[in-house]
Amino acid sequence: MKSYRYADGTFEAVYEIKRSKFIATVMGEVDGDSAETFVKNIKKKYADATHNCYAYIGDVNGQATRFSDDGEPGGTAGQPILEVLRKKGLVRTAVVVTRYFGGIKLGAGGLVGAYTESAVRGIECATLATKIECVRLSVSTDYTLNPVVDKLVRKQGWTVDNTQYLDGVKTSLWIPTDEVKSVESIITETTLGKALISYDMTETEFVKID
To answer: 130-208: which CATH number, 3.30.70.930, 3.20.20.220, 2.60.40.420, 3.30.70.240?
Structure first.
């Protein structure tokens, strides 16, 4: 089953060390383009800052990746931020760490530690969520059988996409791709084969589960 973990929203955390102020801004559900827009917006917001260093992973496979030290010594900012994202297992997430220099140099090791700690704090204050690859499975019944399906859906904790009330009732569910066959069997058994079940395994979407 394919899944990914990400920051569910935009979050900010502040870290200060030796008079330098670091502001970590985290944003989730980004792709390459929206991550670049996010970085530009943060740079605009903190245009008076000494540095706006960043890293992001813009796709679920961890391939759309970019980072920048934004004038800090090479390898002391962008790469450490990226490593935090990787260690936390996050994708489709961007982190910008803004620095206001306080007059005391931190040295290369100190910078790595400061940017790492800032990114960690930003992610720790974020709400993290998981999306899994799902198939939309539709269950069609008459009105007399619908309460049975409703009860089953609540008992199993399946995620409802939508419900249509026409000549009969059509309930669309998001089911993890590797659970479709077992769900089909449960519905068929519970409704004594009276429910019409349909799905297309070639049409999948990532759906939030927590």
So the answer is: 3.30.70.240
Do 4 and 86 contact (CB within 8 A), yes or no? no
Single-letter amino acid, residue 75: G
How far apart are the C-alpha atoms of 117 and 115, rounded to whole Å? 5
Tell me the C-alpha distance between 115 and 143, whole Å: 59
Q: What is the pLDDT of residues 12-52, one digit of tens each?
A: 999 999 999 999 999 999 999 999 999 999 999 999 999 99
Helix, strand, coil in percent for the chain, rounding step 5: 30, 40, 30
Read off the pLDDT band of 180 (50, 70, 90).
Answer: very high
